[in-house]
Amino acid sequence: MAAPPPPCPFPKLHPSQLVRDDGFFMSLAYNQAIDAWRAGEVPIGAVIAVDGEIVAAAHNVVESNRDPTAHAEMLALTQAAAARGDWRLDGATVFVTKEPCPMCSGALLMSRVRRVCYAVPDPKMGCLGGATDLNQLPRMNHRLELTAGGVLEPECRTLLQAFFRGRREGAEAGPEGSPCPAAPGT
Ligand SMILES: [Zn+2]
């Protein structure tokens, strides 16, 4: 049984509003991940941008919602579709701090977003190049443009590693604290 995570020791980033590059949007996804940690969730965040404007921002709420589908990307896709009034999100770019899992990779393909930029590759569960690549299914009629790793990668990786290390050490220190389920495979 995993212990509750320790308090988040990392500050949020304050990117310049003037340069709306991948680093800018990933910084906002990172800040969502910080919010996730502060809420006791695995620190993964996502934002969706269209024409340089943010149309969605979300983080994991798997624990608090008790919902295995409540990953950052899923929530952000739902927000973006609601904002647009259309499930087709062509032209949108999704920035997410970790490579999407099988569920989220599938949803990203189904929503027809133009591009996905993720910070930390995930060789265990990542389905956009890490463990496997759903984007390469031979008969699919939509392909994502991919930026796989490299944008704020060290920061996002450090955040995830520190979270899991802290939770492990908390678990070893003793059973105090409220019980919470094991880490979801985000
Ligand atoms: Zn996911």
Task: Give an overview of the whole structure.
- By secondary structure, this protein is an alpha/beta fold.
- A 5-stranded mixed beta sheet has the order 2-1-3-4-5.
- The chain is globular, with a radius of gyration of 16 Å.
- A hairpin with a 2-residue loop joins β1 and β2.
- α1 (22-38) packs parallel to α5 (153-173).
- The protein contains 5 helices and 5 strands.
- It has helices at residues 22-38, 62-65, 72-84, 102-110, 153-173; strands at residues 45-50, 53-59, 92-98, 115-120, 145-148.
- Bound molecules: zinc ion (ZN).
- The site of zinc ion (ZN) has 7 residues, from α4.
Protein traits:
single chain, alpha/beta, 5-stranded mixed beta sheet, binds zinc ion, 16% strand, 5 strands
